[in-house]
Amino acid sequence: MNMDQIKVSLTGGIQDFLLKTYKNTNTTGQAVASNGAATGYTKNPIEQISYVDAHDNETLYDALAYKLPTTATMAERVRYQVLGLAVPTMGQGLPFVLA
Questions:
Q1: What is the value of pTM for the model shown?
Q2: Average pLDDT over every residue of 30-59
């Protein structure tokens, strides 16, 4: 995920959101692509549910446990978890957090 996708996600996926890209050009949320689809696709942030994990047999914790180096400390692992949850909880829209 690049910085432009994160910016649009923090807005709640607003398609008309104007942003300056990492290449220093202006664009809208709808023009920022994510896997071939527009990152910005809503008219109102309440239309977007943001999440980084949902229980489908692999949670964010599971993915980090598998992908982080074995030398990563518990404090580093916690920081990755908090960073991952920051976008849905701090952005606009409806955050979904696995409890």
A1: 0.77
A2: 90
